[in-house]
User: Fold these one by one.
Assistant:
Number 1:
Amino acid sequence: MMQLFIYFILLIASCDAFAPSSRLITKSTMLFESSEDWIPLVKDSAGVSSPVRKFILIEGIGELPSDGSSVEIEYTGSLVGEADWSSKDICECWLSQLQGLEHLSERFLLNNIDFSMLCDENVFTEEYCATALGIIKKIEAKKLIMARNRLKKSQIEYPAGTVFDSSAKRGKNFSFKLGKGAIRAIDLAVRSMREGEKAIVVCRADYGYGAEGLRSRDGTVIVPPFATLNFELKRIC
């Protein structure tokens, strides 16, 4: 009954999304966050802290697909937002991609700098970077602040809940071979799905479209850089 209730809320919150692209969650995520039913899809990770995690809405039947198998899915992809990033998420997904600033990871973890703290302009200042993070070069501090500002701006321009792709919108399902043809999160998720299974999958940017995001051929942003994604997937075959 609880899963049906959650699924109903997701249907209201969603529209369309994916094929390497997507977004959704928001308030419905809060219901999931308190659940123990999230399945981690990345080795040595757990539950809602996993960079790729799955919540099964409808169980499937039959065998799991093998590497190289041809599969077909229905999907809706949407943006989740990065408000729930922990200091570990920030280091692994964002800071590691900022050239010349990767060495700050240990200090970020030591100071437990999560997304909320990073985006607080009254706390995370150039002065804080110098005192707490030990950044001596002003240009490094400015570079870090500028990167933070771009991340904050992205949250406004591409708000959580924005659907970026869907099989319904495209008028066809997405078919690919496991091991190639899909972003890492989708590949990991579908490997764990039996025919007929329907699930919500949430992934961090390093398992999605990364630091570059996704653009259309004319340069229009479809998925912004560092975007956390939400997919509603159904394995057809």
Number 2:
Amino acid sequence: MEPNHGSFSKGTHLDIGKLDSGTNGSRDSATVRAVKDIAFGSIAGMVAEVFEYPLDLAKVRLQSQVLDTAARFGGPLDCLVQTWRNEGIRGLYRGLPVPIFGAMAETAGLFLTYSQLQSLLLWCSSDVFRQPSLPELGLAAAGSGFLTSFIITPIELVKCKMQVQMLTAPPRIPDFKTHPPTFIHTDSVDSTLPRQHRHTASQRFRELPGPLSIVSNTVRVSGLKGLWVGHVATIIRETGGTGAWFVSKEFFASLLLARRTQTSSLSGTRSFTEVPRDNVELLPWESALSGALAGAIYRLSLYPADTVKSVIQTADDLRLPDTFTPSERLLKRPGSFWQTAKAMYKARGVRGLYAGCGMTVARAIPSSAIVFVVYDGLTQRFA
């Protein structure tokens, strides 16, 4: 691979520049490098999340209906239209602060641990001054995804619960006007009340619990371990997906840089937008293209694990065992990863495991491009 082409600038591994030159000011210290990884990763994740959040909300809602007898939404577009019509713009961005914080923590954690694990692998090798190979980058990326999954799971649990709050099936109450008593939805009772006493969408929003209430209720009911419901699925998705994400980005970036540098050496001239070959850096469009391709590969690689995770994390909200709901017979409690995956496959087949996949890949392409353009740009500007 070409040196210094990826997400990290020259001399980031083990502060090689310092070891080589002997000067303290020539290269960033490990602490400063880590702080920059956290800061740049946080900014990149936040910018991308604001862009993609409505599509992520639609993805989770499509995934969560796989075990329902009747689908609420006919597809991604229908989900967005219904959400807009019934909940307005607030519905499309319901719970946005949580994923913004989560995206900042996730992206910062991924870039930080990816960088540090590369340094660790080089330190364990016989030559700390070389660039890591592609398999070593893959191992560092997979390790980064594994470690970061412990941060991501509680954040995504809260996010998924907030995204399906307006879809929670209303409880049914006995109607003693009939004999024997029948059960009616509370929504039907609400519709018979005078208009001034009915619940509007904005009133329902105000009544819904916020992120802190969701966390406290989860801990009260299930203990701290309840915050890591669906963690096995997150580990599978993040370990394999992050490995594919970083490795494919580095691979495509290598191809683009090799093409540019070879063309420049043959022609003997460079445009004003190119950098000297001894200090090769990615151009913005190269970061965007390699990041976009990597984003598509990341989402496609282990997408069924993400679908299973969403179903597990929203099971208590959409399939309540202690109320009379249309879906009471489907799934009483969040099952294990394999139990849920089998139930989903039995209900909808392979198509159910890939619910919302097309839209997710479509949003991952620009989102991943944004992440790497922002991160690489900040790194080249300030590192």
Number 3:
Amino acid sequence: MNNNYKIINNKIRIQEGLAPLTPDQEKKYNEFAQFTQEKVKGMVQDLRYQNKYIEKSHLVRLLIAREWNVKKSQEMWIRWIEWRQQYKADNIDPIEIKQELDLNKSFWIGYDKQRNPTLLIKPKRHFPGQVPEEMFIRAFIYRIEQGIEMADKVGTGKITVIWDREGVTSKNFDYSMFGVMKKIVTLLQDNYAERLYVAITLYPNFFAKSMMALIKPFLSEKSKSKIKLCDNIGQLKEYIVEDQLKYFENPDLVVDPEEEKRQNEIAQRLEQEKLEIQ
């Protein structure tokens, strides 16, 4: 096993947060599951995706996010479906968002110390008016959906996001970005329940800290605890493995096809290790 990855209590975390339910939790889950099964056919017309919206692990995550309050979980589930339909999250074609993807503002850089897929975001590659806001948000959703698939394959169920401010100048400043960032942060909290492991801002300046201060009131206490600030790469090393350092030591590096192939091989190995421990 690769020594870059942390082992917890001699076991790999498998679907964190989805431990066996207590009798009371099982009762609440059954009530919630019955509600979703009755409602999903009327809300999701495409039969290909109905099972996705009533899948047990996701329903349990919603219950955890709402502290096992069934009514609040039901409301959250309805909003989740409505949000996914608004952005057509089940049908994002990479061709539709190619203009944004080609800018390499965000890409996956492997797995952190906790074995979570790690999304690197480079705001220095963002310039106001490059792409429509909806394309920007749909591209972000596309990346998150990729990460969730990766996380489920290796068994952590969570992702790490790093906002790397290296090289950011006033040219990258976008007056609309506060509204967009608020949407993205709310998007993660409300629509990807219990999927975020940690969100890190690298090299935060006064403006970045001020923006976070403005966004935090819209977050739950649990979400606030997942936001971390790293002033330098040394602090970032607490979270990432050695293989990921090159993306910060060489800031202009992007994932090329060979690197992507290597990361897929790592994912397959991690998935096999998960199965062996199970």
Number 4:
Amino acid sequence: MVGGWENGVDTYMKSSPWVKYILKNSLDAYRYDYYTIGRYDRDMERYLPDNPASDEHHLRYDCGNFYASKTFYDPLKRRRILWGWANESDSVQDDKAKGWAGIQAIPRKVWLDHGSKQLLQWPVQEVEALRGKLVSLNERVITPGDSVEVTGLQTAQADVEVTFEVLSMEGMEALDPALTYDAQKLCSLWGADKKGGVGPFGLWVLASAKLEEKTAVFFRVFRDVGRNNTKPVVLMCTDPRRSSLSPNLYRPTFAGFVDTDLSQGKITLRSLIDRSVIESFGAGGRTCILSRVYPSLATGKNAHLHVFNNGRVDIKVSQLAAWEMKPAVMNARI
């Protein structure tokens, strides 16, 4: 295995021939977590992946800054919980000044989709207990090149759920066959500021008042020409390259393809924003991206939230709900 193993292997084991098994490992080379889906042959004492070729295209828990994860089973609510680690992207000098580096991501419920092709993830329900003031935006059409600010709440710590509706698929750009399986490179080349056909559209989070700083979490829809598939290819991306005016920060784009049905034109996005952390879940948790950002202007009450559309077709915000998030109670007596 190239890159070396770290934190061992995480397996989900149940004694039934009808149960799927997940084999996951953390690779130190890129600090990503990969997994395969398969079955366990007890007689052979061997794990057999359903699709051995999937190793080539890499199923990942999270397409962003998410590493060294572990799971456990919650017998009370009959769910499996996933914990992951997020490294810092700050400067070494600032890390030393803080006296610590790295945080735990918000715990997620993880389960297998109905087609047994991938895992789905969603923040545990308990996170919703931190929701405070609610602001909504519904049935709002975002025209090409336009953006709308979501006002009336503080968004440095927020939980945002939005349903987008693509009103036309005309003008989709053709996906370069060389990038058919390289979402990361596709996002770096086709970032949030590059105007397109269907998209980019999504959220600007932790944005400053004049948009000198902003982190984009967005979708972009391509026409597939390389996989002989009439289904549109949906790219989900977090683009933090304009997230901060501070120098010496690591600001990579993170991206993944979203296996979702756009026949009705709708796709959902949920983003949890917590000062320097943005955890986003596309299409009900089919694609997840965690990113670390360090704005210098868009902090506290000076952080803003926008919906934007840099494509050539109208995008409707069917529903948007944004909650201020209250601080978690740490080390409280039970």
